[in-house]
Amino acid sequence: MTTETELLPILYVPDPRLRAKAKPVAQGDSRIPDLSARMLATMYKAPGIGLAAPQVGELLRLVVIDLHENDVPAPVVLVNPEIVAESSETAVREEGCLSLPGQYADVTRPARVKVRYQDLTGAKREIEGDGLLAACLQHEIDHLDGVLFVDHISALKRNMLLRKLAKELKLKAQG
Ligand code: K1U
Ligand code: ZN
């Protein structure tokens, strides 16, 4: 017999929980293994390449990612992640967000970052990269501080995109 991991509902903008600053995860917090497993299942189902705990209403500094490179599953759970180094060189990449479904924009960010975090055993780890990994790490850590990818684009583009999202979500709610 197999038991399905329960999925979590993803919050959409303008839910105020997406704008809150998340709290550090305490050492030995017994909720984290189950919450991170449910976040991974929710991310895979969406589908997405990352998910931050505030996107499922948990104001904790917890992120899951899996870039699905070469179709090989490579889930990473990052507890209390922080950027400890970033390149001065920048890169532009189109980003989406599971909390702003169907909306995309080019975002400029540092091209390379190094992130320090704890794994599920509490061990200190580091992950470093460029390309999609760098964009995804920065996007997810932004979520922990209530920052969305639309905060990195012009006010004109942001307002257009947020109006489009509101219209699309209203139509969806009407069936
Ligand atoms: O945090 C999120 O909302 C997840 C978001 C992460 C992200 C995407 C692009 C650049 C930076 C960060 C997503 O996963 S949006 C969906 C997506 O990008 C994707 C979905 C399926 C296959 C490949 C990508
Ligand atoms: Zn996002």
UniProtKB/TrEMBL annotation:
Q: Give the first-level EC class, as a single word.
A: hydrolase
Key words of the record: Hydrolase, Iron, Metal-binding, Protein biosynthesis
EC? 3.5.1.88
* Note accompanying the cofactor annotation: Binds 1 Fe(2+) ion.
Q: Which Pfam families match?
A: Pep_deformylase
- Top-level taxon of the source organism: Bacteria
| Amino acids binding Fe cation | C97, H139, H143
Cofactor(s) this protein cannot do without? Fe(2+)
Its recorded reaction(s) are:
N-terminal N-formyl-L-methionyl-[peptide] + H2O = N-terminal L-methionyl-[peptide] + formate
The active site consists of E140
According to the UniProt entry, its GO molecular function terms are: peptide deformylase activity
PANTHER family (alphabetical): PEPTIDE DEFORMYLASE
Matching entries from NCBIfam families are given as: pept_deformyl (TIGR00079), PRK00150.1-3 (NF001159)
Q: What does this protein do?
A: Removes the formyl group from the N-terminal Met of newly synthesized proteins. Requires at least a dipeptide for an efficient rate of reaction. N-terminal L-methionine is a prerequisite for activity but the enzyme has broad specificity at other positions.
Instruction: State the similarity comment.
Output: Belongs to the polypeptide deformylase family.
Q: What is this protein called?
A: Peptide deformylase
Q: What is the lineage of its organism?
A: Bacteria, Pseudomonadati, Pseudomonadota, Alphaproteobacteria, Acetobacterales
